[in-house]
Amino acid sequence: MVPSEFFSVLGTILGGLIGYLSARLLWQTQMKQQRRNLARAFLLEVRQLKRMLQSYSNAFESLGDKTLIEAPIYGRDGLYYSTQKEICAFSPDLAENLYTFYMSLMEAERARQVKKDNIFFKFHAEAVRVAIVKANKSVPNLERLLAKEAGE
User: Fold this and answer.
1) What is the pLDDT of residues 48-68, one digit of tens each?
2) Is the whole model's pTM more than 0.90, yes or no?
3) How many CA atoms lie within 13 A of 60 on its CB side?
């Protein structure tokens, strides 16, 4: 015959195990939902930026080095700045694509801010063009990866 203490210990162990497993499952579900929501937010921002990038790319194509961008390209209030740390929760491919896309935007923004009277202005104007074209070319793949992560 099995002593009653055995069942008490077994019940305690099973209860603890079930509690741990349910808490872990809940945590994993919350993390997945958080990644999905963040991917949706990035997808919305990338789609909004896509129109601007296409316009600038078309202007560079038709006007060449006569294209001058005076409006900000990507400001400090953008989604990337407020969620930078969360990007590493995405798959390595998506995280790398997001990082590359936003680095291109930030490079274009930094180069855009150089004044016309600077002796390196033409160099920086070309850097703006290169960064915008690079960001624009990365949009289709980035949209595909974000849509997959967002569950669309």
Assistant:
1) 999 999 988 888 777 766 666
2) no
3) 18
**Helix count (H) and strand count (E) of the chain?**
4, 0
Which run of H or of E encompasses 124? Answer: helix 121-150
How far apart (Å, rounded) are the C-alpha atoms in residues 114 and 133? 19
CA 136 and chain centroid, separation: 15
Q: What is the three-state SS of 15-51?
A: HHHHHHHHHHHHHHHHHHHHHHHHHHHHHHHHHHHHH
Distant-in-sequence, close-in-space partners of 46: CB < 8 Å, separation ≥ 6: 101, 139, 142, 143, 146
Please tell me the number of Cα atoms within 13 Å of 69 on its side-chain side. Answer: 29
**CA dist 71 → 2, 63, 75 (Å):** 79, 17, 10
